[in-house]
Design a protein that fits this description.
210 residues; mainly alpha; Tetracycline Repressor, domain 2; 10 helices; 74% helix
């Protein structure tokens, strides 16, 4: 038997478990980004990941578990981007405005994924993750608000309530523009970002002149 024949009969080495898990999650994220959670069927994810459908269940007990992890990974990246504004310097109002503008621009650029993260009807396990990450965003804005109050930029206020209201405002304002049936050009995106950011800035000023 020659070496080519031996190569054909030799079993193919298995990919490390971490690599297979990463491929599954990457496939799931790309499918959600293209067609939302409704498109992320287990057979579709398996095909995109290059594995058998049954293999997914070795890593995720159910579709809900898989999609909750897909949500967690995608949302974690977005939270990390916005968190830079909490750690940054400069006037609090400017940081709030730029954080909101950044969120809006990124959401419109990755419209389908952003809609899935913000508004698409989802399994309760994914909805639970959505609530967790809304709180994470609120914590970021609460930190900026505290800085603004300490610096005398902003009037005293309940920063946790104000931050939660900001998250509700800018995410709800994006539901229509991000819906799969809606199109938004670059110029419209900037107008949208400015409008939403402007509202959020005015909301935390409490009547105080800027």
């Amino acid at each position: 038997m020659n070496q080519d024949s031996l190569a054909l009969t030799r079993p193919r080495p298995r990919a490390p478990k971490a690599e297979v898990r990463a491929r599954i999650l990457d496939a799931g994220r790309r499918i959600v980004a293209e067609g939302g959670y409704a498109a992320a069927q287990m057979t579709t994810v398996a095909r995109r990941a290059g594995i058998a459908t049954g293999t997914i269940y070795l890593y995720f007990p159910s579709k809900a578990d898989l999609l909750a992890e897909v949500f967690r990974l995608a949302a974690s990246h977005e939270v990390a981007v916005i968190a830079e504004y909490a750690d940054g310097s400069g006037p609090a109002l400017n940081r709030i405005g730029e954080a909101v503008r950044t969120f809006v621009r990124r959401a419109v650029r990755g419209r389908r994924l952003a809609y899935a993260l913000i508004a698409e009807p989802v399994d309760p396990a994914v909805e639970a993750e959505r609530i967790v990450f809304k709180r994470a965003y609120a914590d970021i804005f609460a930190a900026i608000l505290r800085d603004g109050i300490a610096a005398g930029e902003l009037p005293p206020q309940d920063v946790d309530v104000s931050a939660a209201c900001l998250i509700g405002a800018f995410t709800e304002a994006l539901v229509g523009p991000l819906s799969p049936e809606t199109g938004t050009g670059r110029g419209e995106t900037e107008q949208l970002a400015d409008a939403i950011a402007g509202f959020c800035v005015r909301a935390v000023m409490g009547g105080k002149d800027r």
